[in-house]
Amino acid sequence: MKLLFICMVLLFCTCVHSQGKKDTLFFLNGTKVIGKLKKIKLGVVTFDPDDANDITVKLPKLRTIAALRKIYRVETISNDVYFGKLLPHSDNKTSYMITSSDSLSLYLEEISVLYPYGNSLWRRLSGFVSLGFSYTKSSDFGRLNFDASVTYSTKNIELTISPSGIYTITDTSFSRDRENVTVKLNYYFKRNWFATVFVGYQRNLELGLDRRYQEGFGIGNKFIKSKEVYGWGRSGLVFNQEKSSEGASSGNLVEVYGQFEMNFFRFTKPDINFLLTESFYYSLSQSGRFRNDAEISTKWRVFKDFYLDLNIYTNFDSQPPVADSDKFDYGIVFGINYTF
């Protein structure tokens, strides 16, 4: 009986899509838009219509969604996770979710996150690249900054590579002021719980740090998935090998770490996205040493996939590698962001 039901729904969907196997948004006012469903996040749909720029639509404005071209990962605000395709539903604000083994009615406003789970490498990649440069004639120096992140997603795995850097350029020198590279692997073993391992590299001359290598592991959870806020946290152990700007090496240092990230969305005009990241480290090798890395990032959408970036970062180390170095560093960075 269930198989017959699925076949009838598929037949109905085929009739609806006379223009080919394309994704479709059905609005409550009867409008139908054909194109590509790119993602849903915190109650807002990002859709690429045929022969037009991307549009963002709030889920309450839709009657139903049909998305047949790809398999999608769907996370709901009740912490359920599904993989499948979306078919039209006769009820308002609802779609059928067809998985490999079952079908269910999915209330659209219950979707927290949806993104494509493609079969090819490129369809599983998402991320952004941000670049900025400033120069003043009076000081005769320029400052270059970049920030990027690329994520590769499968059914149970997320692999993320995130490099960033700030550099000072004068007519006689080039200074690598601040650098950060992290490679993180999350494995989801139960709904929103994941095991995490990561390696990293850091450099911060303001704190007297020439380089720090990191290897860490732990456990994490996506603890908030509402219609306007998306957040996750993780905690565990990290191992550091530091070298100061004076050339002294630390050997192996062990720390307990905790990290959380909160993403706040506002998709009315203007289209603005706020991201808050906090990381805390308490040393088990050096008595009383505590470190904190924090960043607030704001993205303002200019057109399609291009944004203006404003990032504010802070770094604190109660016992920096060089004793007379500053314990606190901060900065404000502007850039142009391309998201894919």
Written description of the protein model:
With about 350 residues, the protein is mainly β. It folds into two domains: about 120 residues, no CATH class; about 220 residues, Beta Barrel (Porin). Strands 10-11-12-13-14-15-16-17-18-19-20-21 form a twelve-stranded antiparallel β-barrel. Strands 1, 2, 3, 4, 5, 6, 7, 8 and 9 form a nine-stranded antiparallel β-sheet that branches. A hairpin with a 4-residue loop joins strand 1 and strand 2. The protein starts with a helix and ends with a strand. The N terminus is likely disordered.
Please outline the helices and strands.
Blueprint: H1 2-16, E1 23-27, E2 32-41, E3 44-49, E4 55-58, E5 62-76, E6 81-88, E7 94-98, E8 103-107, E9 111-117, E10 125-136, E11 141-153, E12 157-170, E13 174-190, E14 193-204, E15 209-225, E16 229-244, E17 249-266, E18 272-283, E19 290-303, E20 306-317, E21 328-339
Antiparallel strand pairs: 1-2, 1-5, 2-3, 2-9, 3-4, 5-6, 5-9, 6-7, 7-8, 10-11, 10-21, 11-12, 12-13, 13-14, 14-15, 15-16, 16-17, 17-18, 18-19, 19-20, 20-21
Quick rundown:
The chain has 340 residues and is mainly beta. The protein has one helix at 2-16; strands spanning 23-27, 32-41, 44-49, 55-58, 62-76, 81-88, 94-98, 103-107, 111-117, 125-136, 141-153, 157-170, 174-190, 193-204, 209-225, 229-244, 249-266, 272-283, 290-303, 306-317, 328-339.
